[in-house]
Amino acid sequence: MDYKQCKYCKDTKEMIMFNKNISSKDGHQKYCKECNKVLNRQYKERKATAEGRVMMPYTTKEFSTITDEELLQHIRDFSNEFKRPPTTADFENCNSRYPHTKTYYRHFKYYKKENKLSSWNDILLLAGVTPLDSKDLWSAWQYLVEKSASILEGECLFQYCGFGLDFKPDIYVPSKHKVIDAATSNYCHKHKVKQYYKSVNQGASVEYWCLKKNNKTGLYLPNLKYVFADEIIERLSVLGNKELCNQIKNLYSIYKDFDDTYKKHRQDYVIQKLQEFHKINGRSPYTRDFLGNPAYPSSTTVTTLFGTFNNALRKAKLPINTESNMKFNEDIAITDLLTFIYKLGRLPSTKELVPPNTTYTEKVYYKYWGGIEGCLNALGINFLALKTYAKNNGINLRLNSILEFENLHNRWPNNKELSNKNNLPSPHWVYDHFGNLPNLIKHLENNF
Ligand SMILES: [Zn+2]
User: Which Pfam families did the record assign (predicted)?
Assistant: First the structure.
């Protein structure tokens, strides 16, 4: 065994009593661990005094001398007591009787590279505890949030698609214009911020219903509300909903059975929606009726849950449509188009001709009129005037963006800055309309 003399207390001690230091000759520091601690403390106190601060007296952290085996035993104890493996959130509470997850990572992940453990689940396995299958747990929680929200918030729409194609919140409460998202905990993540702004941009309020509360504060966003499992349980128990309360309490132990329950719950919701459609429209829906239709589940959801759309209709005890497509109705096509143009203030692009904007797609307008322009012509509407209007509108918008830039920076943008990123038109657009940037600037100086 190697020994070394400490340069401070002059004691000769075993090498492991010295902290590592890769830059020194023998790979260890010149002061022993104990002296190091004292010297560090003295240094911090001198620094604090110099900066006019007062340091709190030194206290030993509760788990500072814990061994690896003791750490693993805490994991076993937890899973024996709660009949489930701990999650990181369980061990993130500073006042808990369990060591902090950071202590685990320090012992098993960062400092002891030879362990090659890369995750919390690896540490659980080391303790001989089988990790949770978070995918199952997740769908179980989502299911419980959906059920609870239906009871506590009134009518809910699931996987609501009325906000646009890139945004489908888990739960939308139309009567309150509220978006509810099921989350594992109040963790901070860019993805959550994005989701929040997507809702807020639609004027909706946002709530994250969380399974776990960790002791971080969560995201600081205006009017964002975190609702935690214990609050949900409390509100449900006021309404006497004991069964659901117990399901939430026992979530971890019964999550394995939830996959089927969850599927059944979603199927029931779809069946209810199919029947609702039939009641309102006096016919069974076609897949296209559900394309981007915010009041109904998407046709993908229906086919994923039932295999085929017709299977879903059968389960809902509704007649199956024998004609492959909905009959063409000229009045609907025309009214849709005019309403949409009025709303946009310009001609729609072919991409925009989709439900719920219009009942029929571009293909249908093409088939009957040779396109939307043909349709407007047939109605005696001067589409050229509309088109010019739209075009000028587009040019003015872009010119305004350049004027705004000049206002802000007190100079004109250069070629390199021309980009959508800067909220400016592209060089290509400038070339198309003005030949080059100086021409465009000249035009602006003369006209504004
Ligand atoms: Zn020493």
Answer: HNH_repeat
Residue 419 lies in a domain: yes
How many angstroms separate the alpha carbon of residue 105 from the centre of ligand 1? 28
Domain end (from 249, 268, 285): 249
- The DSSP H or E segment spanning 63 is none
* Residue with the two structure tokens 């646009």: 164
Q: How would you label 207-224 residue by residue, b for 16+ Cβ within 10 Å and e otherwise?
A: bbbbbbbbeeebeeeeeb
Residue percentage of the chain with pLDDT more than 90:
21
The residue among 217, 249, 281 that closes a domain is 249
Round to the nearest angstrom and report the end-to-end CA distance of the chain. Answer: 85
What's the Rg (C-alpha) of the chain?
Answer: 32
For residue 33, give the 3-state DSSP assignment: helix
Say how many Å lie between the CA of residue 61 and the centre of ligand 1: 21
Q: Tokens 């009567």 belong to which residue?
A: 175
Q: Tell me if 433 sits within 8 A of 440, measured CB to CB.
A: yes
pLDDT digits (tens, 9 = 90+) for 235-280: 999 998 998 998 888 887 667 677 777 788 889 999 999 999 999 8
DSSP state of 171: E
Verify that 337 and 300 share a domain, yes or no.
no
Rounded CA separation 195/200 (Å) = 9
Say how many Å lie between the CA of residue 39 and the centre of ligand 1: 10
Q: If you measure from the C-alpha of residue 75 to the centroid of ligand 1, how many angstroms do you get, rounded to a whole number?
A: 35
120 and 139 housed in the same domain: no
Q: Are residues 159 and 188 in the same domain?
A: yes
11: CA distance to ligand 1 center in Å?
A: 6
Domain span holding position 144: 134-249
Q: DSSP string covering 177-222, please? A: TEEEEEEEES---HHHHHHHHHHHTTT-EEEEEEEE--SS-----T
User: Do 334 and 360 fall within a single domain?
Assistant: yes
Residue in 302, 300, 357, 293 with CA at minimum distance from that of residue 161: 293
- 251 CB neighbour count, 10 Å cutoff: 18
CA 18 to centroid of ligand 1, rounded, Å: 9
pLDDT tens-digit map of 77-101: 998 887 788 888 778 776 678 898 8
Q: Ligand 1: distance of its center to the CA of 59 in Å? A: 20
Q: Which two tokens stand for residue 442?
A: 């000249």
CA 414 – CA 433 distance, rounded (Å): 17
What pTM did the predictor assign? 0.52
Cα–Cα distance measured from residue 17 to residue 99, given in angstroms and rounded to the nearest whole number: 24
Nearest to 196 by CA among 212, 215, 211, 183: 183
User: Looking at the domain assignment, is residue 159 inside a domain?
Assistant: yes
**Ligand 1 centroid, distance to 40 Cα (angstroms):** 12
